[in-house]
Amino acid sequence: MTHITRYGRRIKSTFIMMLTLSCIAIFILIPFVSEKMLNNNVGYYSITIRGNRVGAANTENEVYVALANARLSLCKTYDSAIYMDCDIEVTKESRGIAERMSSNELESAIYSALFDCVLDNLDTSLAYMLRIGDITMSFGSKDEIIELFTMIIKPYNVGNEFVPTLHCNDTAEEIYSISIDKVDNGVENSQIVSSFLEGKVQTSEDGKVVAPDILTEIGFEQEVTVTTVYKDKVTLTSVQDAYNEITKESMENTYYTVEPGDTLSGIANSNGLKTSELYALNEGMNDNTLIVPGDQIIITVPKSDITVITKKQLSYEEDYEAEPNYVDDNNSYRGTNTVISEGTTGHRSVVASVTYANGNETDRTLLQENVTIVSQPATISVGTLNPPTYIRPLYGGRFTSGFGYRSDGMHWGIDWSCPTGTTIIASCDGVVTRAGWYSDYGYCIDIRHSNGTMTRYAHNSKLLVSVGQRVSQGDSIALSGNTGNSTGPHCHFEVWVGNTRVNPLNYVNKY
């Protein structure tokens, strides 16, 4: 019995010793095991703002989504631009146990922290930089920009139907755009259009139907943006000075393409020019100059730093002519049209969309019509034969100058630089009408072709043909040179249609 009791005590002592050793081992190993498990499988992300820990979430993406939503909510809280002084840091944590927040809780905590970062009274030190194309100017407030654009659109906004509005496109970068928005007057344009086409609107004394013009849109050709800057970094502009500078007009040369029915006096009048001024812009032009559709004529147009684009919906009555019927004429060259039978004039009520640039019409699109008298179309024959072809007047050479306006005046042909003595060839079959010295052209050759056109070859060193001689395309007619008003050996080549010089690149290749 004593032996059994002693044995039991020994077992009990051994158990206690083993339990004690196990506890010691667990106490020592837990930190190492926990660290290994944490590094491999456990982790979360916390966000700190201005050194204060705000909250945490399971993933980095959750933190950034909450931050973005909080910033957006903060921007909506303020009517104007806000500036913050805050240092934001997102950190991956390596502790296994921590309090995570739900998305809404984290967003709310971040919002509160950002709200505390907003700087007070900063708006008084801000200016607004307006950019119109390449033009920039700065203002003390957004209200001044609104005032400026109200003045710019005033000549077109007769009924005060439109107002300028600033829109914040990028809250982070403080970038604004400006739009011209229509004020709702409670009247639908479609109602006016329907009434007009049905003849239900008022009539004038002569009995014609009258409908009001509807201004549908105001915008700008140039890109217009506004950004915030510090006032001490820019020079502020007054609204009136900015308006005077932006709307100031200067004259700019451009090309007008001749259309069927155009006359020189009509082109001059429609572009605010005297015929003498049009002639001065186009060297060699006079009362006897013949123009044909497709010719390009130099004109001047007023140009300002901003172009106001307006669209109107116009309702009116007009006479009209139906599109003609065309029939092939296999005995005439292409481009030769002949009226076989005249059409008749019709009458209609029209609704059209018309686009203007600074008040000048640039496009007209027919939207609806009500025909009261039908126009019978004319019949026109159209030539189908291919006209004579043209080739480059020399082999080789380097293209050096094109057709068009240059700093020293209009250049009526195209040039290829080439060594003196380079062979010049006939661009097309024809008869030589000039072969000799001709003013600034030096030694010059003109060739008249069967379709009535003429080609000119100038600044030659030697002529190989004479007046009245018939030449074939590709025949040698001269050797290039540097005679007349010339800055170096080259071939100057012109194409004449009637009595007007046209761009030779419409007929030959430059290379």
Your description of this structure?
The chain is α+β, with helices and mostly antiparallel strands. The protein has helices spanning 2-41, 60-77, 103-115, 142-153, 189-197, 239-247, 264-270, 275-281, and strands at 44-49, 52-57, 88-93, 126-132, 135-139, 162-170, 175-182, 214-220, 224-230, 250-257, 296-303, 308-321, 325-333, 337-341, 345-357, 360-373, 379-385, 398-401, 404-406, 409-411, 414-417, 423-425, 430-437, 443-448, 453-463, 470-471, 476-480, 490-497, 500-502. The strands form seven sheets. Strands 18, 21, 22, 23, 24, 25, 26, 27, 28 and 29 form a ten-stranded antiparallel beta sheet that branches. A five-stranded antiparallel beta sheet has the order 5-4-9-7-6, covered by helices on one side. It is elongated and about 145 Å long.
